[in-house]
Every structure is written in C-alpha cells, then in structure tokens.
Automatic annotation (TrEMBL):
Organism from which the protein derives: Callithrix jacchus (White-tufted-ear marmoset)
Spans annotated as Disordered: 494-526
GO molecular function annotations of the record: G protein-coupled receptor activity
Membership in a protein family: Belongs to the G-protein coupled receptor 2 family. Adhesion G-protein coupled receptor (ADGR) subfamily.
UniProt GO BP: adenylate cyclase-activating G protein-coupled receptor signaling pathway; cell surface receptor signaling pathway
Membrane topology according to the record: Multi-pass membrane protein
Name by which UniProt lists this protein: Adhesion G protein-coupled receptor E3
Subcellular location: Cell membrane
Leader sequence segment: 1-26
Superkingdom classification of source: Eukaryota
Annotated GO CC locations: plasma membrane
Length: 526
C-alpha cells in the first residue's frame, strides 16, 4: 500500500524540480537532512524516513528524506472513527473518514501524511504567486503533503485541518498565508486557492483546505515598520486629550448655567472618547491572552462606534438649531433629542458589535494589535458605519452653512443676533473639522502623500479631546464666567483658610509679651 501512496509525492517532487536549477553531484557530502552515507558513495534515508523517489540508495543531490505516517482503513467508517489524526514531526492533519474511503467499500483504503524537513529551502517564498514587493516573505513551516491512495489534489467533502509548527517561534508577522503547491507549465508555484487561515499563536498555525496537495505556511514581515515619531505623537496627544476630555466632562457636569440638550451631547461624546482613548493606550498591544485581546478589540469597536454615533447626533442637533435659529431653546427640539439620543447613541453601536461578534468572533484581535482583523472584510464592521456617519455629517454641514448664509443676508444689524449666527457658523466649521475631517485623512493614507497624511491624521486625531475642550469650554462665554467664579471662590476660600490658620496659632488664651502692643496702645520710645 505504501508504494501507491508515495506516487503523489514523487509526482510532486518532479514538478518542483522543474522550477529550480538541477545540479547532480554524486557524493556523500551532498546527502540531505535525515540521511546518511553508505560506502562513501550512496546516501540512504534514516529509519522512519523515506526518499521522495522511493529508492533506498541514491546519489541525486536534490533528493529529500521525508517522514511518513500512513493510516489504513479496512472497514467502513464507524461513529468512533469519524476523524483520523496523523502526526509527523510536530505537524498534524485531521481528515474525515468518509473522505479517506471515497465511497469505495471494496478493500482497504489508506491515507498518508508526509513531512519534508529541508524541502522549504528549495521551493521557498520566492515561488509565491502573490508576492508583494513591499513584503519580505519567508517559509515558516515544513512542507507537508497528504495523499489518499494514488490520487493527488483530491477534492474533499469536509475540509481537512492542518496544524503547522513554526520554524521561527513567536514571529512578529503582519501577514500569514496558508498555501499549497500548484503545478504549472513553468514547474510550479505556491497558491492560496482553497486554503484558509484558521488561527495562529506563537508556535503553531492552523489552516484548513478543501483539497489534498502539498502545503506550507508563508509569513510576511512588512517593510512598513512603525514610525517612532508617530508613536510618540500618538501617546503624547492622546494623554493631552484624556486630560482635556476629563476637564470638559467635569465642566459639563458641574456648570449648571450651560446644562441643556447640547451640553448632554457634548458630555456623552467626551465620555465615549475618554474611555476609548484610555483603553487604546493601555490595551491595544495586549495581544496575549487571546480572549482578553478579543474583549479589548470588541470594547474599542463599541466605544469608537458610540463616539461616532454621538458625533452624528451632535451634527443633527446643530442642524435643528440652525433651522430654528430664532428659537434655539425651543422645547420641541429638546424633547426630540432627549427621546432619541440615548437609544441611538448607545443602542445602534451595541447592535453592530453584537452582530459582528456573533458572526465572526475569532476575527476580534490580530497577531500584533487588539483590533478588528482585515480578513473576510471584517474591518468594514467599523469602517462602514464610520463612512456613513461622515457622509451624513458632511450633508448636515452643507445644509447648516446654506441656512446660515440665508440668515445672514436677511438679518438686520442687531448685534446679538449676528453674534449668535457667527457662533453657530464657527461651531459648524469646528464640528466638521473635529468630528469628520480627522478620520477622512485616515482614508487618504495612500500613494506618495501617505506619510504626510499619516502625520496629519495622527496629530489632529490625537488632539481631538483638546479641540473639544477648546471649542465648547474655553471659547464659551458662559463657561468663562463660571471658571472666573470658581477661581474667585477658590481664592476666597484659600484666603479664609489662611486667616483661620493664623488665628488658631495665636489662640484665645495666649498672652502678649512685653513687646506686644494692645489695640489702642501706642508703644512709647525712650
């Protein structure tokens, strides 16, 4: 049975030898790994290994000694043997029993799992058909083959599960590819068709495939390394934003003179951004354990979506305020926003995250970041709502400016009304800049201007909390009055505290010394 099973391996070796330069040297120093010299002339594979050509003695320098495990099935599949597990050199394969027998109940059936120790040095990552010039690809596993009888590239009813041990433990790779060897007219190449990445940790990668062939794991170290300057800007900017967002939230909570629907919107936006930025700073790199990383990624997904939803509500409220410019505090607007803002602000992001987590929970968290995975378009669970909100905010922005332009052309010279209109215009501009423009720059990080856009995006977005505190607190006349009032009260309280401390030191029972002068007494000079 072993002869027919080794036939696919022989065909595989012949196809790959057409893709490399063959140099024949008959000498023992050329013996491959897991082989030894015989009579100073021939090479032979060590016990437990077999040559790719099936010959016991060989001189071909590109011959390979491979580890082989076979499993023979002499009867039909039973409930106890639904899946077979084959292990070779810390690599394993799980295959369903019915795929092994292939519906043939006459006679025994067999499956072979083969591992090649040094074949990856010959058919390396340069044979990958989708190789990107920006990436440095390398093979991070042994090449393995699977065969059922004499057949090769067999289609399966149930995908086969392959587990590869890494050659380099704990790889810091941005991209991981599960690939199989595809024979071509030019010899062969690595292809991803029908091979899918399931999971990866520091030591192993798990893949599945819809067919049997020869497989391996390719990893890519991207040339776009992290910019330390951008990292410093991010951490410094987000730290400043956290401080400003905390001060803004305290202002919105404690300053009773400005508390209204608009202030409630500012408060919820500040809280969401504060929690999102704080979690980003402390948890974005916590990739182990995986469960914790997935929870952090899901929480960041929810908090940033909630922040963008509150940005949308801010734009909606600004539009309604501009449309009813003469009745800014009109009760119907406030009642509408109070009914809508909390279910929308926190409910819609919860629904989106729940659907994403229920459909593809394994795509929360990547190998180097606790964020959404790029595979299967999962990132669009975040980018889709963000793009929609940005588009709606842009529409609201244009409508508000159109309304304000009409108001300005019809207003008289009443100073208070003009100031009110100008303030709304300034806030509309600031709102687009703060809540929309920063993330738009993130989408523009392509082409030759990518580095410039990356710096602009990082600087502006990391200072978003500072801009919110500047626009809604420091530039607000009501807040400025409240800050001055609090400052005077603090100074007065401190002055009274110092006076009380001084009087307590003197004490009511203390007696004056000879040099002390009592009230109304004039000290005489001699």
């Amino acid at each position: 049975m072993q002869g027919p099973l080794l036939l696919p391996a022989l065909v595989f070796l012949l196809s790959l030898f057409g893709a490399v330069i063959q140099k024949t040297k008959a000498s023992c120093p050329q013996c491959p790994e897991n082989a030894s010299c015989v009579n100073n002339t021939y090479c032979t594979c060590d016990p437990g290994y077999a040559s790719g050509s099936g010959q016991k003695l060989f001189t071909f320098p590109l011959e390979i000694c491979k580890a082989v495990e076979t499993r023979v099935i002499t009867d039909n599949c039973s409930e106890e043997r639904q899946t077979f597990n084959l292990n070779v050199q810390m690599n394993s394969m799980d295959i369903h029993c019915r795929d092994v027998i292939q519906g043939d109940t006459q006679g025994p059936s067999a499956v072979a799992f083969i591992s090649y120790s040094s074949l990856g040095n010959i058919i390396n990552a340069t044979f990958f058909e989708e190789m990107d010039e920006k990436d440095r690809l390398y093979l991070n596993s042994q090449v393995v083959s699977a065969a059922i009888g004499p057949k090769r590239n067999v289609s399966l009813s149930t995908p086969v599960m392959l587990t590869f041990q890494h050659v380099k433990i704990n790889p810091r790779s941005k991209k991981v590819f599960c690939v199989y060897w595809e024979s071509t007219e030019q010899g062969g190449q690595w292809s991803r068709d029908g091979c899918f990445l399931i999971s990866m940790n520091k030591s192993h990668t798990m893949c599945n495939s819809t067919h049997l062939s020869s497989f391996a794991v390719l990893m890519a170290l991207t040339s776009q390394e992290e910019d330390p300057v951008l990292t410093i800007i991010t951490y410094v900017g987000l730290s400043l934003s956290l401080l400003c967002l905390l001060l803004a939230a305290l202002t919105f909570l404690l300053c009773k003179a400005i508390q209204n629907t608009s202030t409630s919107l500012h408060l919820q936006l500040s809280l969401c951004l504060f929690l999102a930025h704080l979690l980003f700073l402390v948890g974005i790199d916590q990739t182990e354990p995986k469960v914790l990383c997935a929870i952090i990624a899901g929480a960041l997904h929810y908090l940033y979506l909630a922040a963008f939803t509150w940005m949308l509500l801010e734009s909606l409220h600004l539009f309604l305020t501009a449309r009813n410019l003469t009745v800014v505090n009109y009760s119907s607007i406030n009642r509408l926003m109070k009914w809508v803002m909390f279910p929308v602000g926190y409910g819609i992001p919860a629904v989106i995250v729940a659907i994403s987590a229920a459909s593809r929970p394994h795509l929360y968290g990547t190998t180097d970041r606790c964020w959404l995975h790029l595979d299967q378009g999962f990132i669009w669970g975040f980018l889709g709502p963000v793009c929609a909100i940005f588009s709606v905010n842009l529409v609201f922005f244009l409508l508000v400016f159109w309304i304000l332009k009409r108001k300005l052309s019809s207003l008289n010279s009443e100073v208070s009304t003009i100031q009110n209109t100008r303030m709304l215009t300034f806030k509309a501009t600031a709102q687009l800049f703060i809540l929309g423009c920063t993330w738009c720059l993130g989408f523009l990080q392509v082409g030759p201007a990518a580095r410039v856009m990356a710096y602009l995006f990082t600087i502006i977005n990391s200072l978003q909390g500072f801009f919110i505190f500047l626009v809604y607190c420091l530039l607000s006349q009501q807040v400025q009055k409240q800050y001055r009032k609090w400052f005077r009260e603090m100074v007065k309280s401190r002055s009274e505290s110092e006076t009380h401390t001084l009087s307590s030191k003197v004490g009511p029972d203390s007696k004056p010394s000879e040099g002390d002068v009592f009230p109304g007494q004039v000290k005489k000079k001699y």
